[in-house]
Amino acid sequence: MACFPDFVGSDALRERIGDAVRRNRLSHAYLIEGPEGSGKRTFARMIAAAVSCERRADEGANLPCGECLNCKKILSEKSTDVHYLDRGDRATVSVEAVRDIRREMSLSPTELDTRFFILDDADVMTPAAQNALLISLEEPPAGVLILLLAESADGLLPTVRSRVQTLRLEPVPTADVKQYLLRVSPEARKLNGEGGGKLDAVISASHGRIGVALAFLTPKREAALLKTRETVAAVIRAAVGGASYQEICRAVFALPAKRQELSAHLTTLIEAARDLIVLKRSPDAPLLFYVDRDEAAKLAEKADYLKLIAIYDALRDASDAVGGNGNVGTVLTSLSVSFKGRK
Ligand SMILES: [Zn+2]
Questions:
Q1: Both 254 and 157 in a single domain?
Q2: C-alpha 19 – ligand 1 centre gap (Å)
Q3: Domain residue limits at 156
Q4: Which of 113, 136, 185, 338 has the fewest beta carbons closer than 10 A?
Q5: pLDDT of residue 208
């Protein structure tokens, strides 16, 4: 028997919730917390399926079994007793939307024993919406399980947070992401066949979030991602040492001029610089950007610790300036000068 066998990662959490489902000890409301693409909605669906699984009482069965009628309906989002709410294309979740859901909570289930309310983007509920929900969290109607999904609990009122149990999804280890992608995605298998570390680069950029990795796996997005990585790697190579000012400028001014794209590149550059810094301290440290550890170690050797810190700080300053509407040309020039100025 396995708990949530089709969910990759967060092993301890899966065990804990699986056990609570079997013993009928689930809380009436949970907050599933994790960054975009980390599997919050998938996990919420699986909790609903586990609770409603027709094989729930079978000791040897996987939970959810994924094969009974209830599991199939819930996992394909076709059950009329599993309700979803998200912000859609709005910036926030409104109080009206929450009131509608609250009314819905007072009705009886039609096909399952429990009704589930999966409220995505809970951290962008307006304070009024959160207060409207509070009543349901304090006095939950019988047979209702509320699952709030949020990138961070910080956006929730303390009163809401105190009434839900928080389940934090962990980043999935790289090897497990790879194994999963190779199993489910023909595009991943194709990319892996092409070699050159292309699939590893996609996985590295997903930072342990399977949803993000899957979203990267289209030829267009792969090409863009690999190009970004090349541009970033070239800037770091120029910054760490041995490059003339002209070469530094060439690498830095190859960064995109559009603010949003530049900002994303700078985030990746900061991760790459951070990799070199941590490698100085511990050669086995987990890396955020570099897939080839030897390549990263060689780069780290080219500069001393203080220089790497200076590169990191210059990138942070550039990122802040771009975020704060600084002139892009000026930012890139200052960045080039900082890279040149330090030996
Ligand atoms: Zn089942």
A1: no
A2: 16
A3: 11-168
A4: 113
A5: 92
Ligand 1 centre distance from Cα of residue 93 (Å): 32
- Look at residue 303 and tell me if it is in a domain: yes
Span from the CA of 58 to the centroid of ligand 1 (angstroms): 10
Cβ–Cβ under 8 Å, residues 103 and 137: no
Record the tokens describing residue 244, joined without a space: 């003339």
* Omega within 30 of 0 (cis) for the link into 140: no
Burial of 279 (0-12, 13-18, 19+ CB in 10 A): buried
Same domain, 298 and 164: no
Paired strand residues for 147 = 30, 118
Alpha-carbon distance values, 223 to 62, 198, 201, 246 (Å): 39, 10, 11, 27
Maximum distance among all alpha carbons in the chain?
72
The string over 191-203, giving b where at least 16 C-beta atoms fall within 10 Å of a residue's C-beta and e elsewhere, is bbeeeebbbebbb
Note whether 93 and 231 are same-domain residues: no
User: How many domains does the structure of the chain reveal?
Assistant: 2
Q: What is the whole-number distance in angstroms between the Cα of residue 52 and the centre of ligand 1?
A: 7
Give the separation between CA 193 and CA 223, rounded to whole angstroms. Answer: 16
Residues 337, 222 within the same domain: yes
Q: Look up the CATH number of the domain holding residue 97.
A: 3.40.50.300
116 class by beta-carbon count within 10 Å (0-12 exposed, 13-18 middle, 19+ buried): buried
Query: How many A from CA of 79 to the centre of ligand 1?
Result: 13
Q: Give every residue of the chain whose pLDDT is below 50, as ranges.
A: 343
The answer on 158 and 15 residing in a single domain is yes
